[in-house]
Amino acid sequence: xxxxxxxxxxxxxxxxxxxxxxxxxxxxxxxxxxxxxxxxxxxxxxxxxxxxxxxxxxxxxxxxxxxxxxxxxxxxxxxxxxxxxxxxxxxxxxxxxxxxxxxxxxxxxxxxxxxxxxxxxxxxxxxxxxxxxxxxxxxxxxxxxxxxxxxxxxxxxxxxxxxxxxxxxxxxxxxxxxxxxxxxxxxxxxxxxxxxxxxxxxxxxxxxxxxxxxxxxxxxxxxxx
Length: 225
Hints:
By secondary structure, the chain is of the alpha+beta class. Helices cover 41% and strands 16% of the residues. The protein is built from seven helices and eight strands; from the N terminus they run αββββαβαβαββααα. The protein has helices at 3-21, 78-87, 100-107, 137-147, 167-188, 198-208, 211-222; strands spanning 30-34, 40-44, 58-62, 67-69, 93-97, 126-128, 152-155, 160-164.
C-alpha cells in the first residue's frame, strides 16, 4: 500500500467518524474515495461499525463491487458511488448520508433551499424521487443521471448523496446540507423563510469556497473526536 492510499484511508475514517458524531451518518451510510488514476475506489465495508470505524474497515473495490483489497464485502449500495465515478471523472469522493433534517424536508415534498450563507456552496440541490435502496446498477445509473453535473442530491425518504473533488469537500458539503436543512425547518415554523437570491448566492459562494475555510470546518469537527 502506498503512503497516498494509506492517507486516503485515514481521511475516510476521520470523515466517517465525524459524520457519525454529527448524526449525519448512522449505522448505515458510506463514504468513498476514488483510487487516483484507476477504476477503483476505497469505501467502508458494509459490516463496518460507523461509530467505531478503523482503517481495517476500508476496503478497495472495482466499479463492479469486486474486492481488490480487504476481507469484507462493500455496502450493497456501492452502486451509488460506482455510477457517479463512471459518469463523472471530476469526482474523487462520494458520500451517502442519512441526515435527519434534510431527509425530513424531502419527505414533506420540499426542496432544501439556500437559506443560510453556507448553502451557497451546495449549488443547485437535485432530488431523486424514488424511495429505494440503490442496490442495483440500474438504480445507481438512474440516480447518477438525476445528479447530473451537480454536487448534491437528496433521495426521497432516504438521505442524500454528495459528490465532490475530494474527501474534505464531500465532508463539508454534507455538513452544510444538514445545517441548511435544520435552519430551514426551524425558520419555517416562524413564518415565511428568506431564500438567498441568485446574485447573493454567487457572491457568497466565491467567498466561502476556499480551501482554508473548508479546512476550518474539518478541523472544528475533528477536534471533537
